[in-house]
Amino acid sequence: MPAFPAGRHSGTVVPLARANVDTDAIFPKQYGRSTAKSGYGPVLFDSWRYLDPGDLGSDHARRRPDPGFVLNRPELRGATVLLALDNFGCGSSREHAVWALRDYGFRAVIAPSFGDIFRQNCPLNGVAALALRAADVQALFALAAGQVLHLDIDLDAGRVQAGTHGFSFTLSARERHLLTRDGDWIAATLAQHERIAAFETRHLAQQPWLDRLLKDD
Protein backbone atom coordinates (compact mmCIF):
# COMPACT_ATOMS: atom_id res chain seq x y z
CA MET A 1 0.00 0.00 0.00
CA PRO A 2 1.51 3.37 -0.98
CA ALA A 3 2.00 6.00 1.70
CA PHE A 4 -0.24 8.47 -0.13
CA PRO A 5 -3.01 6.68 -2.02
CA ALA A 6 -4.66 9.21 -4.34
CA GLY A 7 -1.88 11.62 -3.36
CA ARG A 8 -3.44 12.58 -0.04
CA HIS A 9 -3.05 11.82 3.63
CA SER A 10 -4.74 13.00 6.82
CA GLY A 11 -3.16 12.43 10.20
CA THR A 12 -2.38 13.54 13.72
CA VAL A 13 0.81 15.51 14.38
CA VAL A 14 3.61 14.76 16.83
CA PRO A 15 5.36 18.11 17.51
CA LEU A 16 9.04 17.33 18.14
CA ALA A 17 10.51 20.75 18.92
CA ARG A 18 14.14 19.84 18.31
CA ALA A 19 16.62 20.96 15.65
CA ASN A 20 19.53 18.98 14.20
CA VAL A 21 18.01 15.59 15.02
CA ASP A 22 20.54 13.16 13.61
CA THR A 23 19.95 9.66 12.31
CA ASP A 24 21.55 8.09 15.38
CA ALA A 25 18.94 9.77 17.57
CA ILE A 26 16.20 8.55 15.23
CA PHE A 27 17.61 5.03 15.06
CA PRO A 28 20.46 4.11 17.46
CA LYS A 29 23.32 2.16 15.93
CA GLN A 30 23.09 -0.83 18.30
CA TYR A 31 19.95 -1.99 16.50
CA GLY A 32 21.32 -1.68 12.98
CA ARG A 33 22.54 -5.23 12.46
CA SER A 34 19.86 -6.25 10.02
CA THR A 35 18.81 -5.12 6.54
CA ALA A 36 15.17 -6.02 7.18
CA LYS A 37 12.99 -2.96 6.63
CA SER A 38 10.48 -3.72 9.36
CA GLY A 39 10.38 -4.25 13.12
CA TYR A 40 12.14 -1.01 14.05
CA GLY A 41 9.16 1.05 15.22
CA PRO A 42 9.68 0.17 18.92
CA VAL A 43 13.22 1.63 18.88
CA LEU A 44 12.42 4.90 17.12
CA PHE A 45 13.99 7.75 19.17
CA ASP A 46 15.09 5.03 21.57
CA SER A 47 17.32 7.07 23.92
CA TRP A 48 14.68 9.81 24.29
CA ARG A 49 11.69 7.52 24.42
CA TYR A 50 12.73 5.20 27.24
CA LEU A 51 14.15 5.73 30.73
CA ASP A 52 16.15 2.50 30.61
CA PRO A 53 18.70 1.50 27.94
CA GLY A 54 17.85 -1.13 25.37
CA ASP A 55 19.72 -3.56 23.18
CA LEU A 56 18.96 -6.21 20.56
CA GLY A 57 17.61 -8.62 23.17
CA SER A 58 15.30 -6.14 24.91
CA ASP A 59 11.59 -6.68 25.24
CA HIS A 60 10.62 -3.10 24.39
CA ALA A 61 7.06 -3.59 25.59
CA ARG A 62 8.45 -4.05 29.12
CA ARG A 63 10.78 -1.03 29.09
CA ARG A 64 9.97 2.18 30.98
CA PRO A 65 8.74 4.96 28.67
CA ASP A 66 9.72 8.54 29.50
CA PRO A 67 6.41 10.34 30.15
CA GLY A 68 8.05 13.65 29.27
CA PHE A 69 8.88 12.64 25.71
CA VAL A 70 6.29 13.82 23.18
CA LEU A 71 6.01 10.47 21.39
CA ASN A 72 4.71 8.92 24.63
CA ARG A 73 1.76 11.25 25.05
CA PRO A 74 -1.32 8.96 25.10
CA GLU A 75 -3.41 11.31 22.96
CA LEU A 76 -0.80 11.13 20.18
CA ARG A 77 -0.88 7.35 19.78
CA GLY A 78 -1.41 6.48 16.16
CA ALA A 79 -0.02 9.80 14.91
CA THR A 80 1.26 9.69 11.34
CA VAL A 81 2.84 13.14 10.85
CA LEU A 82 6.04 14.25 12.59
CA LEU A 83 6.73 17.98 12.94
CA ALA A 84 10.34 18.99 13.64
CA LEU A 85 12.79 21.87 13.37
CA ASP A 86 15.78 22.59 11.10
CA ASN A 87 18.12 19.95 9.70
CA PHE A 88 16.07 16.89 10.60
CA GLY A 89 17.80 13.63 9.66
CA CYS A 90 21.33 15.02 9.57
CA GLY A 91 24.40 12.89 10.30
CA SER A 92 25.06 9.49 8.77
CA SER A 93 23.32 8.03 5.73
CA ARG A 94 21.61 5.38 7.86
CA GLU A 95 18.50 4.30 5.93
CA HIS A 96 17.30 2.46 9.05
CA ALA A 97 16.21 5.87 10.38
CA VAL A 98 13.54 6.12 7.69
CA TRP A 99 12.60 2.46 8.13
CA ALA A 100 11.97 3.12 11.83
CA LEU A 101 9.80 6.16 11.10
CA ARG A 102 7.75 4.22 8.57
CA ASP A 103 7.48 1.15 10.80
CA TYR A 104 6.23 3.27 13.69
CA GLY A 105 3.50 4.62 11.44
CA PHE A 106 4.76 8.00 10.23
CA ARG A 107 3.88 8.85 6.66
CA ALA A 108 5.25 12.40 6.60
CA VAL A 109 7.90 14.49 8.32
CA ILE A 110 7.56 18.27 8.17
CA ALA A 111 10.54 20.52 8.88
CA PRO A 112 12.21 23.64 7.48
CA SER A 113 15.14 21.56 6.19
CA PHE A 114 16.48 18.00 6.12
CA GLY A 115 19.76 16.15 5.86
CA ASP A 116 20.25 15.60 2.12
CA ILE A 117 20.65 11.80 2.15
CA PHE A 118 17.83 11.38 4.67
CA ARG A 119 15.52 13.39 2.42
CA GLN A 120 16.45 11.21 -0.57
CA ASN A 121 15.79 8.05 1.46
CA CYS A 122 12.34 9.15 2.58
CA PRO A 123 10.24 8.73 -0.60
CA LEU A 124 12.07 5.48 -1.38
CA ASN A 125 10.59 4.09 1.83
CA GLY A 126 7.11 5.59 1.84
CA VAL A 127 7.74 8.69 3.95
CA ALA A 128 7.19 12.22 2.63
CA ALA A 129 9.86 14.72 3.70
CA LEU A 130 8.06 18.05 3.36
CA ALA A 131 10.12 21.22 3.66
CA LEU A 132 8.06 24.23 4.72
CA ARG A 133 9.23 27.76 5.37
CA ALA A 134 10.59 28.20 8.90
CA ALA A 135 7.80 30.66 9.71
CA ASP A 136 5.18 28.13 8.56
CA VAL A 137 6.71 25.39 10.71
CA GLN A 138 6.63 27.73 13.71
CA ALA A 139 2.97 28.47 12.95
CA LEU A 140 2.23 24.72 13.00
CA PHE A 141 4.01 24.36 16.34
CA ALA A 142 1.87 27.20 17.70
CA LEU A 143 -1.28 25.45 16.45
CA ALA A 144 -0.15 22.19 18.09
CA ALA A 145 0.47 23.84 21.47
CA GLY A 146 -2.09 22.67 24.00
CA GLN A 147 -4.17 20.63 21.56
CA VAL A 148 -4.02 17.64 19.25
CA LEU A 149 -3.38 18.92 15.76
CA HIS A 150 -4.66 17.18 12.64
CA LEU A 151 -3.32 17.89 9.16
CA ASP A 152 -4.43 17.19 5.61
CA ILE A 153 -1.60 16.77 3.08
CA ASP A 154 -2.17 17.01 -0.68
CA LEU A 155 0.91 16.05 -2.70
CA ASP A 156 -0.45 17.18 -6.06
CA ALA A 157 -1.50 20.58 -4.76
CA GLY A 158 1.65 20.91 -2.65
CA ARG A 159 -0.43 21.95 0.36
CA VAL A 160 -0.60 21.20 4.06
CA GLN A 161 -3.92 22.20 5.59
CA ALA A 162 -4.54 22.62 9.32
CA GLY A 163 -8.12 23.78 9.70
CA THR A 164 -8.29 27.18 7.99
CA HIS A 165 -4.49 27.47 7.83
CA GLY A 166 -2.75 26.39 4.65
CA PHE A 167 0.95 26.04 3.88
CA SER A 168 2.82 25.24 0.66
CA PHE A 169 5.64 22.84 -0.15
CA THR A 170 7.37 21.58 -3.29
CA LEU A 171 8.04 17.98 -4.32
CA SER A 172 9.59 16.67 -7.50
CA ALA A 173 7.53 14.54 -9.90
CA ARG A 174 9.72 11.56 -9.01
CA GLU A 175 9.07 12.00 -5.26
CA ARG A 176 5.31 12.16 -5.89
CA HIS A 177 5.54 9.05 -8.06
CA LEU A 178 7.34 7.09 -5.35
CA LEU A 179 4.95 8.16 -2.61
CA THR A 180 1.77 7.40 -4.54
CA ARG A 181 2.83 4.15 -6.22
CA ASP A 182 4.89 2.42 -3.51
CA GLY A 183 7.95 1.77 -5.68
CA ASP A 184 11.65 2.49 -5.80
CA TRP A 185 13.99 4.46 -8.10
CA ILE A 186 14.07 1.58 -10.60
CA ALA A 187 10.28 1.45 -10.79
CA ALA A 188 10.14 5.23 -11.16
CA THR A 189 12.63 5.02 -14.04
CA LEU A 190 10.78 2.15 -15.75
CA ALA A 191 7.59 4.19 -15.59
CA GLN A 192 9.28 6.45 -18.15
CA HIS A 193 9.96 3.57 -20.57
CA GLU A 194 8.18 5.26 -23.50
CA ARG A 195 10.29 8.39 -23.16
CA ILE A 196 13.44 6.29 -22.77
CA ALA A 197 12.62 4.25 -25.91
CA ALA A 198 11.91 7.45 -27.88
CA PHE A 199 15.24 8.90 -26.77
CA GLU A 200 17.12 5.74 -27.79
CA THR A 201 15.48 5.74 -31.24
CA ARG A 202 16.25 9.42 -31.76
CA HIS A 203 19.80 9.08 -30.45
CA LEU A 204 20.61 6.11 -32.73
CA ALA A 205 19.13 7.94 -35.73
CA GLN A 206 21.44 10.87 -35.03
CA GLN A 207 24.47 8.65 -34.39
CA PRO A 208 23.96 5.41 -36.38
CA TRP A 209 27.51 4.26 -35.74
CA LEU A 210 26.43 3.49 -32.15
CA ASP A 211 24.08 0.80 -33.44
CA ARG A 212 26.91 -0.89 -35.35
CA LEU A 213 29.12 -0.69 -32.24
CA LEU A 214 26.43 -2.32 -30.09
CA LYS A 215 25.95 -5.13 -32.61
CA ASP A 216 29.68 -5.78 -32.75
CA ASP A 217 29.66 -6.22 -28.95
List the helices and strands and how they pair.
Layout: E1 8-15, H1 23-26, H2 46-49, E2 81-83, H3 96-104, E3 108-111, H4 116-124, E4 128-131, H5 134-144, E5 150-154, E6 159-162, E7 165-168, H6 173-181, H7 185-190, H8 193-206, H9 209-216
Parallel strand pairs: 1-2, 2-3, 3-4
Antiparallel strand pairs: 1-5, 5-6, 6-7
Subunit structure: Heterodimer of LeuC and LeuD.
Function: Catalyzes the isomerization between 2-isopropylmalate and 3-isopropylmalate, via the formation of 2-isopropylmaleate.
Pathway: Amino-acid biosynthesis; L-leucine biosynthesis; L-leucine from 3-methyl-2-oxobutanoate: step 2/4
Oligomer category? single chain
Cα-based radius of gyration, to the nearest Å: 21 Å
What is the count of distinct domains? 2
The CATH class of the largest domain is identified as Alpha Beta
Task: Please tell me what the overall shape is.
Answer: globular
Low-confidence stretches: none
How many alpha or pi helices? 9
Question: What's the quick description here?
Answer:
It is built from nine helices and seven strands; from the N terminus they run βααβαβαβαβββαααα. It has 217 residues and is α/β, with parallel strands linked by helices.
